[in-house]
Amino acid sequence: MAEMRVGDTVERLDVERAWLVDPVAGREGPGEISVRGGRLESVSWLKGAAAKGVGPEGVLVLPGLLDIHVHLREPGNEDAETIATGLAAAAHGGFTSVAAMPNTTPAADDPAVFARVRAAAESSGSPVELLLHGAVTAGRAGERLAALGELADAGAVGFSDDGAPVKTPVLMRNALLYLGAIGLPVFEHAEDLGLTANAEGHEGVVSAILGLKGWPVAGEEAAVARDLALLAGVLPDAPGARLHVTHVSTAPALELVRRAKAAGLPVTCDVTPHHLAFTDEWLAGARRWSWEAVAGDGTVRDPWADRALVGRPFDTATKVNPPLRSADHAAAVLAALLDGTADAVATDHAPHTDVDKHVEFGIAANGISGVETALSVLLAAVAAGKLPLLRAVKALTTGPASVLGARPGRRGAPRGLVVGAAADLVVVDAGATWTVTAETLASRGKNSPLLGRELPGRVLLTVADGRLAYRDGES
């Protein structure tokens, strides 16, 4: 493969004595794969002596990952990210399909914007599949519905005003009714703006000590409750209505989703790697994982007393919306991932320029550039014994595909370990580490609180639809 470039068909690839994970079959174990002419020619599961010494701490072969929530900034803010750099970043992170949010300039509320974005993806040469969400309201202004039918015909996989919630109950209800007839989900950013205006961080001890205006838990819980009530109300008239709540970050909101699912409502949700593994103490300078901030008896350790504050406070790379929560909410995110309340992990990849981030904390743009570090963060949870490897892989493959309603052979469907299909896979050395730096990130957005940190799980190779998407060491 020495002469291969991104976009070339992978004519020949053999990965021997690796740990294979097939989330569709619910199987993992020692095995080998062969790719010929861009297609997965064989998958062999090793047994007995042949399997000896092969474990999940070595080389992993996974289906290509799917991220249902990224911000690629083009058109309108190409200084922060372009389609080309965003797809390159996705491939570096092991993602072979990504779904871009519509909060661009102009907003993706018209098929012409879709066409422009797809042209940029085509010209990039990347084989990473780009899926598109359409705006719920025209210009994301929250005043009237966008041309939902036209956007659906143009290939939208979902609809969202992300960056902000759907502004009024009337608009949300009408969107659920209309899209219920089409069979596409509303991706809702759950936030009660009346409770969160000018908020700078999670309302709690850390924000109080740092003097930051708090973002209360009720700001998410109330919004989720509103949307679930609206969903239940429209189902008699629109049985195809579907609600997806994105980047859920609090225990009460997750419990509402859990109960709604148990009651049979067609609701799904995702959580982010940063709400799983980071906590609000990172705003004060802590850099320990969320599970390290909880004592054996379940109490949250004091970062000041534990001398956990090893970084500088007010790092704007930790400013996100919804904000990083306290460790008990991070534990609830993990529990929701384990019990299936959270269907997927989505990165909410939000690259920004230094101009937008290197400012006073309160006025800094919200967001973490996270598509390249997501897999490593989950592998850190796996290594800590907090998350089974198979569950982590499902949350990055079959889980997000189910949210989109993707079926085998359809856009957004994992294709990886199916013999005869176009190869769609990522090869990862779980035992190797890599250091997050501005130079190692392919994204134009360098706004990550993980800069300078050594992470587990080095992506060696990403193959998308039978073509080379990323290879370790490629320029």
Account of the 3D structure:
The chain is α/β, with parallel strands linked by helices and 475 residues long. It has helices at 83-92, 111-124, 148-153, 169-182, 193-196, 205-210, 218-234, 251-262, 273-277, 327-339, 354-357, 374-383, 389-395, 398-404, and strands at residues 12-22, 27-36, 39-45, 59-63, 65-70, 95-100, 129-134, 158-159, 186-189, 201-202, 214-215, 243-246, 267-271, 344-345, 425-435, 454-464, 467-471. The strands form four sheets. The protein has a seven-stranded mixed sheet. β6, α2 and β7 form a beta-alpha-beta unit. α1 (83-92) crosses α2. The two termini are 14 Å apart. The mean pLDDT is 96.
Stretches with pLDDT under 50, minimum 5 residues: none
Strand content: 15-25%
Nearest-integer average pLDDT:
96
**Biggest sheet: strand arrangement:** 3-2-1-4-15-16-17
> What integer value in Å does the Rg equal?
21 Å
Please report the total strand number as a whole number: 17
